[in-house]
Design goal:
InterPro entries: TPR-like_helical_dom_sf, TPR_rpt. The protein is mostly helical and about 150 residues long. The protein contains 8 helices and no strands.
Length: about 150
């Protein structure tokens, strides 16, 4: 049996399997082997429960980031919308993670040239950032200015 197979056999419960596949997904992501990273991260989503947990949101966010790097904006957006669904149920309304999620959704929409939706989501991110003293508040404002500039030109 290969060392990989031995490790997998030792991961005899869901918690260990989640950790195992999460680490493999992160490692493959670092190596820019995105297809293999996605395989392992998607296995994690099948093991995690409930869907409202923060660890599940983190897994969806990792999948979204990989999809974005691969240029698959539709899947990245779909995954970040899953994160938003979890965030809205589990976090206080002005949590910095919620601002990050709105920013990520807006950024993808901007890349897709869906400027009105992007502006809405980045504005939500900025509103939360202002109330939570988020460190990226100024970056959100710059992105809003960029989107507005593009919309004026069009």
């Amino acid at each position: 049996m290969t060392p990989f197979g031995q490790l997998l056999k030792m991961a005899d419960d869901d918690e260990r399997l989640i950790m195992f596949h999460s680490h493999l997904g992160a490692t493959y992501n670092d190596l820019r082997r995105y297809e293999e990273a996605l395989i392992h991260l998607k296995k994690v989503t099948g093991l995690e429960a409930p869907e409202s947990s923060m660890s599940c949101a983190e897994t969806f966010a990792n999948i979204a980031e990989i999809s974005f790097k691969r240029g698959d904006y539709e899947d990245a957006l779909r995954q970040f919308l899953e994160v938003l669904h979890i965030d809205l149920r589990t976090l206080p309304p002005y949590h910095t993670s919620l601002a990050n999620t709105y920013h990520n959704i807006g950024f993808i929409q901007m890349e897709q040239k869906h400027y009105v939706q992007a502006l809405e989501n980045i504005t939500k991110a900025l509103d939360i950032a202002k109330k939570s003293n988020h460190p990226d508040m100024h970056e959100y404002q710059k992105l809003i200015d960029t989107i507005v500039g593009v919309m004026i030109i069009k």
